[in-house]
């Protein structure tokens, strides 16, 4: 009998963390490494938010809080949903956890029984399928290729729904592709969902504020109010306010679901860090100039990376609508050999050879459920991005 639980055999370690760890190890050995594998803004948390965290420490707000969030943070979240999304939630319909990942995990663990199905459009964030598997559910992967703009079509959604479908996970803008659903595209999906009342929607809105050009963000419950009672709207402060390490995520949804998630959290982590909660409150209630300024920087970086990658042989890089990733196709690279002698049979070969031969760390597309692609995070300084793109171009030009 194995000492470790059988459920662990269903999942794998995060490939994005694995690539970031490998890059760090090579850097520690003295290699010149440019890491573009982590999904983390490279800016400092805004000063007024940092000051709120310090004030929480200085005034002794360092004790336990209610399991799923302080009353004042829940109210700030309600105000945010009303102000920015046109969604009316009460504090009893809000839950706060240690990051958006815990919100997703709690929701799936609290609702899935063995064999329940969860529709996940691919490419997807690497943790979605493994969370479903840990909860004994069945991930139903629907490939959304470059021809569809990496977006789920209503026809594909309809075809994927069965009597066992319990959730659709929808991430807009998307990690890894940056694809987003405008109002018309979102309405087309919600029209399908209205015909299937057993299907709930887990809306991962973590990149809500990182949108470019004329793209206007919408969330499912906003577009179709009739779905609100079966939507969990998840968000957080990590990406919008450069607060990844503060670990605060939140969700709004029907009160029975929120209570169930709180019950689960009460027997796992209990409350999120009290200091971080007060900082998150300052982020949501305070000035929002930072979001506009950082968005402009990310859009400039996006344009730099898209143009540079499209100048590389064998690479095709669509222009994303949001987030801070690009998801280029390397279909034309498969079967070629690098200057260092590595044959590229798949996108994992590509990512490993790129790191070994150029020192540029990216994540291979198979990690996100759609190949042959790779993901670049452009949450890095302009000069590093320019150097990385130049190295990738040299690498591609050396392939035969």
UniProtKB/TrEMBL annotation:
Source superkingdom: Bacteria
Record flagged with keyword Glycoprotein: no
Cofactor names: pyridoxal 5'-phosphate
Xref: InterPro entries: Aminotransferase_I/II_large, AspAT/PAT-like, NHTrfase_class1_PyrdxlP-BS, PyrdxlP-dep_Trfase, PyrdxlP-dep_Trfase_major, PyrdxlP-dep_Trfase_small
Keyword Magnesium attached: no
Record field: catalytic activity: L-aspartate + 2-oxoglutarate = oxaloacetate + L-glutamate
E.C. designation(s): 2.6.1.-
GO molecular function terms noted in the UniProt entry: transaminase activity
This protein's UniProt keywords: Aminotransferase, Pyridoxal phosphate, Transferase
Residue ranges annotated for the Aminotransferase class I/classII large domain, each copy included: 32-392
Protein family per UniProt: Belongs to the class-I pyridoxal-phosphate-dependent aminotransferase family.
Protein's UniProt name: Aminotransferase
Organism of origin: Paracoccus spongiarum
Lineage, broadest ranks: Bacteria, Pseudomonadati, Pseudomonadota, Alphaproteobacteria, Rhodobacterales
């Amino acid at each position: 009998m194995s000492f470790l639980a059988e459920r662990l055999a269903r999942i794998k370690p995060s490939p994005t963390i694995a690539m970031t760890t490998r890059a760090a190890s090579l850097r520690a050995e003295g290699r010149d490494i440019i890491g573009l594998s982590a999904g983390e803004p490279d800016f400092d948390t805004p000063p007024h938010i940092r000051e709120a965290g310090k004030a929480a420490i200085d005034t002794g707000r360092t004790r336990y809080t209610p399991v799923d969030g302080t009353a004042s943070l829940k109210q700030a979240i309600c105000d945010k949903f009303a102000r920015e999304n046109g969604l009316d939630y009460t504090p009893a319909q809000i839950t706060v956890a240690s990051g958006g990942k815990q919100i997703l995990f709690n929701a799936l663990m609290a609702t899935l029984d063995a064999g329940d199905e969860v529709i996940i459009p691919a490419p997807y964030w690497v943790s979605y399928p493994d969370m479903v598997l840990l909860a004994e559910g069945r991930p139903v992967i629907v490939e959304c290729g470059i021809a569809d703009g990496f977006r789920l079509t209503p026809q594909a959604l309809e075809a994927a729904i069965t009597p066992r479908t319990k959730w659709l996970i929808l991430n807009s803008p998307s990690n890894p592709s940056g694809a987003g659903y405008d109002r018309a595209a979102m309405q087309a999906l919600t029209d399908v969902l209205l015909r299937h009342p057993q299907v709930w929607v887990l809306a991962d809105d973590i990149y809500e504020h990182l949108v470019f050009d004329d793209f206007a963000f919408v969330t499912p419950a906003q577009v179709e109010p009739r779905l609100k009672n079966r939507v969990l709207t998840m968000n957080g402060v990590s990406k919008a306010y450069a607060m990844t390490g503060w670990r605060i995520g939140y969700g709004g949804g029907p009160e029975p679901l929120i209570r169930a998630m709180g019950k689960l959290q009460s027997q796992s982590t209990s409350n999120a860090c009290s200091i971080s909660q007060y900082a998150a409150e300052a982020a949501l209630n305070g000035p929002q100039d930072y979001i506009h300024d950082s968005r402009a920087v990310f859009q400039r970086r996006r344009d730099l990376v898209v143009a540079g990658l499209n100048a590389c042989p064998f690479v095709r890089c669509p222009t994303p609508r949001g987030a801070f990733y690009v998801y280029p196709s390397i279909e034309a690279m498969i079967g070629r050999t690098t200057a260092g002698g590595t044959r590229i049979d798949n996108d994992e070969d590509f990512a490993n050879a790129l790191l070994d031969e150029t020192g540029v760390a990216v994540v291979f597309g198979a990690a996100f459920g759609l190949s042959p692609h790779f993901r670049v995070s452009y949450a890095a300084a302009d000069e590093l991005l320019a150097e990385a793109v130049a190295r990738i171009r040299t690498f591609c030009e050396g392939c035969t």
